[in-house]
């Protein structure tokens, strides 16, 4: 990735990290008008960054999060003692004569901070496989797939526009957003030879379609009573589940009011 592309991914990641805080903080200070203003600005900035990555840098399917979280265990540096052992050429493994079982040599046992419960070969194979998966180039998108990804990227803006035109109680924004999401997934389903991250992203988007059961006005008219009844039954009749379901019942109304939790 080029340096400008890395900067775009960094800014996109920052926006995804602070969007909920920005919405809640702005609502607290400037009220509903300020809240919807910051929502529009953040979604507009995210759409511009994603379209630049898609159309200019040919970054392929946009994944979430844009930057893969750092695997600290994989990136953990060797202890100085371990580096001395490696440089001295000590054997790291011992192969049993009768069982042919590979075991770690006592002389090359690493420090407690960098110790892991596997043979060195397994760790090296796992690290090389992860590095290969991370370094796979994005799958080239044709015209159909580019249109599909553009629909997914611009869906939040079209949803906000429809909210401004028809209001928050109308079914039209809900239906428009659902049609765009399903259309995008349908057009991308024909794409073959996706790498691991892209396949995981499409699975995530498919699972997120369940959010439409929790989005207004569908939630207000159909889902709310059934979901709360199910959570109440689980809390009353399944031992131990109430520790999770009762706070969830109290949290759902607040969760519903945050746009970036619900629609972002």
TrEMBL record:
Residue spans crossing the bilayer: 36-57
Biological process, per Gene Ontology: peroxisome organization
Main location: membrane
Basic and acidic residues bias: start-end ranges: 122-133
GO cellular component, one term: peroxisomal membrane
Bias (Polar residues): 105-116
Cross-referenced InterPro entries: Pex16
Family annotation (Pfam families): Pex16 (PF08610)
Region of interest called Disordered, as start-end residue ranges on this chain: 74-140
Subcellular location: Peroxisome membrane
UniProtKB keywords: Membrane, Peroxisome, Peroxisome biogenesis, Transmembrane, Transmembrane helix
Family (UniProt): Belongs to the peroxin-16 family.
Name the record gives this protein: Peroxisomal membrane protein PEX16
């Amino acid at each position: 990735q080029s340096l400008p592309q890395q900067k775009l991914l960094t800014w996109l990641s920052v926006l995804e990290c602070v969007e909920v805080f920005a919405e809640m903080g702005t609502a607290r200070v400037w009220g509903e008008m300020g809240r919807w203003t910051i929502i529009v600005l953040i979604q507009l900035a995210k759409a511009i960054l994603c379209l630049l990555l898609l159309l200019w840098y040919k970054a392929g399917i946009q994944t979430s999060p844009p930057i893969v979280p750092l695997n600290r265990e994989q990136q953990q540096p060797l202890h100085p003692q371990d580096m001395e052992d490696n440089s001295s050429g000590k054997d790291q493994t011992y192969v049993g004569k009768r069982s042919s079982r590979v075991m770690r040599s006592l002389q090359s046992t690493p420090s407690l901070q960098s110790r892991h419960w596997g043979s060195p070969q397994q760790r090296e194979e796992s690290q090389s496989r992860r590095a290969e998966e991370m370094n796979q180039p994005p799958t080239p998108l044709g015209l159909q797939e580019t249109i599909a990804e553009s629909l997914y990227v611009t869906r939040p803006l079209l949803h906000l526009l429809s909210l401004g035109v028809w209001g928050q109680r109308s079914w039209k924004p809900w239906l428009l957003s659902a049609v765009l999401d399903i259309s995008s997934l349908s057009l991308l389903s024909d794409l073959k030879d996706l790498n691991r991250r892209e396949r995981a992203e499409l699975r995530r988007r498919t699972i997120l379609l369940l959010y439409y059961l929790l989005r207004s006005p569908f939630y207000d008219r159909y889902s709310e009573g059934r979901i709360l009844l199910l959570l109440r039954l689980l809390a009353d009749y399944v031992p131990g589940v109430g520790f999770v379901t009762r706070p969830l019942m109290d949290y759902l109304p607040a969760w519903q009011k945050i746009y970036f939790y619900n629609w972002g």
